[in-house]
Task: inverse folding
């Protein structure tokens, strides 16, 4: 399966709201190949030249359900600085702990499956721990994430329950900041 903007489903497709199912570990050849291609999409989408040639929209994460496949698999590639990249290709990711302190991105969130911008803050836990199988290291991992990487992981894990980022936006006051929250630049 080739992954590009033609194969990503949008929020008007009812499949995006499906709950995803666990996958078997070790991964089947088919699941491993799909998860590898998801990771490749995200990594390549961040290179302008490759993205243009392959019809990729820039992204920091993708979930299998965004391809219409209801399996608990996500890929994230978040550049931290020149020398560090926060990247995982996870099967069956699960949040095992989260902070009470919330965080949101000042610019809001976006999504490959949401073509129209939805205005407002999306508050999520500022710190989380996630457990899952990482295809890149071929092992069970426990990931500690804070700030932007934590937001990206939660965004992708939400997809596995059929949730989209704009479900978290306060409809009455989209830019209201709760007492226990920070807004990240």
Result:
């Amino acid at each position: 399966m080739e992954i590009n903007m033609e194969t990503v489903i949008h929020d008007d497709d009812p499949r995006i709201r499906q709950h995803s199912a666990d996958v078997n570990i070790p991964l089947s050849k088919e699941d491993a190949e799909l998860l590898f291609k998801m990771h490749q999409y995200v990594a390549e989408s961040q290179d302008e030249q490759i993205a243009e040639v392959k019809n990729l929209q820039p992204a920091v994460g993708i979930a299998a359900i965004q391809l219409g496949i209801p399996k608990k698999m996500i890929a994230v590639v978040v550049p931290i600085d020149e020398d560090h990249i926060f990247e995982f290709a996870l099967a069956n990711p699960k949040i095992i702990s989260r902070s009470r302190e919330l965080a949101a991105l000042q610019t809001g969130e976006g999504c490959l499956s949401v073509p129209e911008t939805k205005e407002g803050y999306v508050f999520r836990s500022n710190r989380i721990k996630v457990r899952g199988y990482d295809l890149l290291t071929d092992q069970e991992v426990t990931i500690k994430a804070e700030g932007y990487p934590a937001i990206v992981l939660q965004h992708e894990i939400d997809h596995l329950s059929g949730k989209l980022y704009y479900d978290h936006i306060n409809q009455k006051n989209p830019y209201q900041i709760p007492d226990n929250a920070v807004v990240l630049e």
Notes: The radius of gyration is 16 Å.
